Each structure stands twice: as structure tokens, then as C-alpha cells.
Amino acid sequence: MELQNLTSFSEFLLLGLSDDLNLQPFIYGLFLFMYLVTMLGNLLIILAVSSDSHLHTPMYFFLSNLSLADIGFSTTTVPKMLVNIQAHSKSITYAGCLTQISFFILFGCLESLLLSVMAYDRLVAICHPLHYPVIMKPRICGLLVLVSFFISLLDSQMHCLMVSQLTFCKDAEIPHFFCDVPKLHDLACSDTSGSNIVMFFAGTISGFLPISGIVFSYYRIVSSILRVSSSSGRYKALSTCGSHLLVVFLFYGTGLRVYLSSAVSSSPRKDAVVSVMYTVVTPMLNPFIYSLRNKDIKSALWRIISRIV
């Protein structure tokens, strides 16, 4: 087969979720609706946190940054898919593919690290309540977010650099609705061992370490809660973690489901459909989880709506 370097290519072809032309209007409408809900929900969370002085606390500061990561995560993949459906096209330039990979990993890793930081915030609040204002000072919170961003940026650039070194077969077709690194590895005609090593270490940074931090934090939290004598005290402590735990299970549960299914499934299109949960549905549901289970957020949103009305 004829081989070409990435830089000499002009485009990849994103095959999307289905080749059925009759399904395209339905897919377009569904994804447009989910994207608009994602944008509206996360922007409302950011607006509520920034406009209400009662929400100027570390927990809501991290939540607003998580909403920003969700917006970036969805914006990286969905608009390109909608444009391709509208234009009856499947193409994405190689520069556009590398850019999509870079931002997808950046925001995905950032969300993972922010969830770990939020778990640490709950650990300090429950296990060391008297020292909470000293430990979680605004400067420390800003530093944690900044470090998370730079680690995510490093992770994304490592992936992007390794993909740019791969050689692909002519007429490369990606059986997905966005440029996904594992799919590009499957298409590569050159040796991917170096890139696989980078993926392993990057996956450790963006996946294993945050999960380990979350598990350790909740181990300490549960141990502390079990020492509380009253059931009402236990419930109050657990209620502050409920929304975060639900988001953690949703984010990592769907993510693991995607990669486990891709390991055992022989259908690339089925893998793409499953990945919708991880890339589109989860960022859409996060604002609802935090707003519906949080009286402070609901009160802030009602005050904003009242001022507008």
C-alpha cells in the first residue's frame, strides 16, 4: 500500500455514527439539542457561581471550572459532527484532526483532575473542618486548578506529538464521529510501539492517578463519617459528597465502558455509539446533577431568573 506522512495528507474521513441517510436528520437534531442543553446548563452554573457571593467558596469555584471543562469537552467534538452532517461531508483536515485530539485530551484530562481536586476538597471539609479555611485558601484553589490545566496541556501535547509522527495508509477512514487516538493507531501503517508507551504513561497521569486520589479521599471520608455518632451528622456529611460521587461514577463509568467495549467489540461503529455517553451525555448531565441536588445552586439560579423577569 502507498504510505504517506501525516504532513503530506490533506484530510481524514470521519464515518460518523451511521451511514443511513434517513437517520442523519434525527442524529443532527438529537446532537444539536444535547449540545445546546450542555452549553446552557454549564453556563448557568458558571453564571450562578460568579454572580452569587454565597457561592464564592472552594467547592463552587472547582464546580465552575468543571463546567468550563465540560463546555470545552463537548465543543471539541459535537460542532464538527453537526457541520459535517449539515454539509453532507465526512472530511476533516489533518491539522483539524490534530487540533481536535489536542483539545479533546486537554479537556478530558482536565475534567478527570478536577474531579480528583474536588474529592480532596471534600476530604478537607469533612475530615479537617476547623482547618478548612486555612488549607483551602483562594490562592491554593487557584494553584490546584492551574496545575491541573498544565498537566492536562502536557498530556494533550504528548499525544498530539506522537500521533503527528505516525504514517497512515492512503484514504484513511476513521469509524468514529471525532478523531480518537486509539482509532488513529488502528489506521497507522507504521510502528506504534512508541506511541503506545506514551499513551500508557499519559493514561496513568489522566486516569489512574486521579482515580487513586478519589478512592483515597473517599476512604478517608468514609472512615471519618463512621466515627460520627449521630445518624443526622453522617447524613449531613454524606449529602455534601452525593453530587460529586454521582458525577465521578458517571464520568469514569461511561469512560471505562467505552474502552472496555472497544477491547472486546469487533464493531467500530458500535464503539462510536457507546462513546456518545462519555463525550456528549456526561457533560450534559453534570449541571443537572449539581443543580437538582444542591439547594444553594437552585437558590442562586432562582435569584438570577427573578432579576431577569
UniProtKB/TrEMBL annotation:
GO MF term set: G protein-coupled receptor activity; olfactory receptor activity
Transmembrane segments: 26-47, 59-78, 98-120, 140-158, 197-219, 240-260, 272-292
Pfam families from the UniProt entry: 7tm_4
InterPro entries in the record: GPCR_Rhodpsn (IPR000276), GPCR_Rhodpsn_7TM (IPR017452), Olfact_rcpt (IPR000725)
Domain annotation G-protein coupled receptors family 1 profile: ranges: 41-290
Keyword DNA-binding (UniProt): no
Record PROSITE patterns: G_PROTEIN_RECEP_F1_2
Record carries keyword Transmembrane helix: yes
Keywords: Cell membrane, G-protein coupled receptor, Membrane, Olfaction, Receptor, Sensory transduction, Transducer, Transmembrane, Transmembrane helix
Positions in coiled-coil regions: none
Top-rank taxon, per record: Eukaryota
Membrane protein topology class: Multi-pass membrane protein
Places the protein is found: Cell membrane
A single Gene Ontology CC term: plasma membrane
Record function comment: Putative odorant or sperm cell receptor.
PANTHER family: OLFACTORY RECEPTOR
Protein family according to the UniProt entry: Belongs to the G-protein coupled receptor 1 family.
The protein's name: G-protein coupled receptors family 1 profile domain-containing protein
